[in-house]
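Example record

One chain of 173 residues, shown exactly as stored in the release files.
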Amino acid sequence: MSETSTPYTPASTSTTVAGNETVSLADEIKKYDTAKLIDFLCGEKDLGLDDDDLEIIRKQKINGRAFLKTSREEFQSLGLGFGPAKNLADFAKDCKEKKLRAFSSYLSLSEVLAEYGFDSDGIDSIPLFTPQTHEIQDNNKVFKRCMKKFWVGCAPTELYRRIAWRPCVMSMS
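Predicted structure tokens for this chain:
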């Protein structure tokens, strides 16, 4: 049996499945604690949730399992308005029906790329990540403090730190 990770595009949710079995998005959401559920819901812009709505979910400690079993009326009784309550209840229902597909069930790389909006037979069409660069002056106090903590934390033993890193740390003070 092989294990495969399958991302769910709108909120970057993933699941692990064995072989080619199909797993619902709800199977993954059930595992979410309150914080992870809120992060997931924040990724769903069309739900129309604001900070007050998310705070209600946080205060009521609604986790993934509870979210999937909560009705519109129950969401409203917790203090959510009709709109957010209806949206959450409908979204929970949609999540129960949404099936995630294992990468191992795809027949080719081009099929996987097409699923994610790349019309190609190879990975050359995937844009490369270009990190931003920032110039940091050597006399920057925050940089010095960060480097000092880095070097002290990197030493594998106390003796090694005294021998190899002590002069470097002392010069940064």
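Notes: Residues 1-20, 166-173 have pLDDT under 50 and may be disordered.
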